Amino acid sequence: MFFLETTPDTSGYMIAGYIVAFSVMAIYVVSLIVRWRNLSQDLSTLETMQVPAKKAAEKPKAGKSKSARSKTGVKATKKK
To answer: Which residues have C-beta within 8 Å of that of residue 69, sequence separation ≥ 6?
Structure first.
């Protein structure tokens, strides 16, 4: 008698499980794409900010001579 029972149809649960699994994976992929775009925008912003700083560091300031400074930051004076 036990062998005459049919197995229950669980294909609906299988389909629901696949839908949930693929939805989670799709959300994760979209999240990675958004993060990638934000990182590339941040990188380009940092690079544009860095270029003027490099140019300013390369140009010597007019009117100021290079003088030796001690570790305390006080200018060394020449004795006559």
So the answer is: 75, 76
| Model pLDDT for residues 8-45, shown as the tens digit of each residue | 899 999 999 999 999 999 999 999 999 999 999 999 99
Give yes or no for a contact between 69 and 75, defined as CB atoms under 8 angstroms apart.
yes
Tokens of 67: 């003088």
Work out whether the CA dihedral 28, 33, 38, 43 comes out positive or negative: positive
Where are any strands of DSSP class E within the chain? none
pTM listed for this prediction = 0.55
Cβ-proximal residues to 76 (8 Å cutoff; 6+ apart), any chain: 67, 68, 69, 70
**Residue 56 in tokens:** 């300013």
